[in-house]
User: Fold these one by one.
Assistant:
Number 1:
Amino acid sequence: MPSKETGQLRIVDSRTENAYLIPIHDNFIRAKDLMAITTPDPKGSDIEQKLTVLDNGFENVACMESEITLIDGNRGQIQYRGHPIQELFQNNDYEDVLYLLMWGKLPTQAEKLEVRRKFAAAMVPTKTVVDTIAAFPRNSDTYPMCLAGLCAFMSGDKVIANNRHTHKPSFHNNFEQADAAIIRTIAYYATTLALIHCHKRKLTFTNPDPNGSLIGNLLLMMGKTNKETGVGPDPEIQACLEKLWICYADHEMTNSTAGLLHAGSTLADPGSCAISALVCGFGPLHGGAIDLAYEALGKIKHPSFVPAYIEMVKSKKARLFGYGHRIYRTRDPRLSLIEELIEKNREKCDANPLLRVAFAIDKLANEDEYFVSRKLKANADLLGCFLYSALGFETDMITAIITLSRIPGGLAHWRETLDKPIKIWRPRQIYTGDRTDDVDTPGRQSLSSNEGPLKEKHGIQVRELNSGKSNKIPLKVKAILWAKSCFS
């Protein structure tokens, strides 16, 4: 729904005493409107300086208007396209939510089956992909293997590979091609994770079930099958992940989603955009914090050492990864949903030595005034990881699997941009270094007496001559210059 003007912000610039009325749209202003606020150049030239907004870390800057996910951090609410996350958690599975985020409605059974089959068809790896993963030592870090596997898949995808070699946008306003590429990208990444898991553990990769769900086929390909029959994915793990992934399906404009969209603004393909999101997602202050949290749990070793560790955190001699969230000023609504899943798997959680340490930390953190006063609680990503451990997933795969649950949400945001005006993201900066005032620049002292300043016409830089002759450039010459600038 397009935003409406709801008021005006009156600004008086104390430098000039000029007054401005900036439109307010649904409690936000457009940064571009602030460019109307100008001041004369302090150097005395006739160039006016436009006001710029500086916001290191984007703490109070919105970069998109979106209809996908609503987060109200003050009230502790999350909605996917108007559906409260609690309702979706109780009544739907991850496939439903993926479809809702991507295509704007809950699917029929026939629509779910159609998407399942498209995912499965793209999950069969080529020899190039298999060989790429097999080339890594089995003890390699998972992160570079994820990137390499996804790149190997993309190298054999003609539509994705050709995107950079066409002058016409491949996906913009071409939803049929975009949707097919989105599905393949998600399938490629799921298969990459399964191949990595199998390679590291010397397991046999199993091809997907043509009618299986995304999560079901991930488990099947990883070798996490029904313990009683040996056929099909483990039903207990699948049932848990179908609910858990709803909590991770999308979280509005996260760092990784912004990275994905930044890449997408260049008209990059969805696979490349997903890689941008993964690079962000594995960073130590983003999803990679989970790996650091598990490393800390491994060092603590036993619940009896937790009080000493907490004191180290309070004295800033150690860091408690996975606690606190920038968005929420109250309880994250996903936490109660994940806690519900933990209770359903309580026996498995209590049997895991690492989780006994984790729960001891969480108990103390919820009681200690230091954490309570700062509202530092385990975030949903960390809490959900306890379930992965309880279900038998090794720590080296957990962050990677979490990113798979999030990639479809990020690509839903990318899809949302495809019918919007094309605009590459190019933030500004505030220069704070040394500056020399008397530098020769085009249009100043470096010009000869018969040359004027450079001007841009139709995307071509043209220098106007100060002679009495006409400076009009023939159309044919313009065409030649244009062709050289575009294709040379």
Number 2:
Amino acid sequence: MIQEWFLKSALLQSSLTKFNNCVFPLFLQENLIGALLAIFGHLVSSIALNLQKYSHIRLAGSKDPRAYFRTKTWWSGLLLLVLGELGVFSSYAFAPLSLIVPLSAVSVVASAIIGIIFIKEKWKPKEFLRRYVLSFVGCGLAVVGTYLLVTFGPNSHEKMTAENITRHLVSWPFLLYMLVEIIAFCLLLYFYKERNANYIVIILLLVALLGSMTVVTVKAVAGMVLVSIQGSLQLDSPIFYIMLVCMIATAIYQATFLAQASQLYDSAQISSIGYILSTTAAISAGATFYLDFMGEDVLHICMFALGCLIAFLGVFLITRNRKKPVPFEPYISMDAMPGMQNVHDKGIAVQPDLKASFSYGALENNDSMPEIYTPATLPIVQEQHGPRGVSVPPYRVLEHSKKE
């Protein structure tokens, strides 16, 4: 009886395995595993970053003298961030690069949902709908785009052995792609450093070009680690350490340019434009290095491109709806200064135009303004003494007119 039971169990398991291989081929199973790992990693990373942000805000709004790294919330966020990045790193070992990269839209969707759930203000239903309608539409489009990406993603799978990676590295399509990328990177870097062209597109193009090399090396390193775990050791090959060094170097320079962009532009613009440019550059790099779309029919390629466009639009709508911070506009009230005479006839204080930053009393166009709003001229004169020893004020108020 026991032998018959074991025999039936083995036959049942074999039939189930054959059924799964017929319904879900091996490459689809690997694509699904990689996509789920990437989605899980981006979701956990988004939660981790919001936890760390919550820790900073909570400390800033309280009288707690502790540093942020001494709180349990911040450390919980850090551990979740490491777990999420490990999930994303592992996903590159299973699925093609062109499938994993666009799934970073999940982190944008998760951040938008977390921001709406944990919002502190109380909104009326109409205000809430009007304010967050773009976020809801963007989340829906991003989910639809993600579904199309997973469904119609490329199905190219090969073992990431040192021999295969070396063969891809010296192939003429990738060498031509690298030549074009190096020339474009040098030109962009020249305009950025020498011509002071601090445009957001130029900075994020530099980030995207570096990021395309980062994901290529990440997939090579992750794939070789997986093959080594399966029994064929690849970690003793020089190409593994070359890819590892390139991965670390490009990631560091990529973070440097991102930090410079964050000092000049809003995070919403960086998120949307950076996602579009980085995804496009990474897919191009994966198509030339790993030949992700080799043997794919036109329908699958078109549906995959449609999924990317829908995900791009969704991320753009989500980031467009973010509330932009209003910078502090300082001003000087001339009549509030002790000992200062009033420089206008009707006692109006000199204050800046709110449309321009740090414009102390200077108007954009004096010709189209009334005369009382034109700034007075205050020349500096030497202090003089009157005949009876009475000191004269060290300034003289001159009448200002348009004829002058």
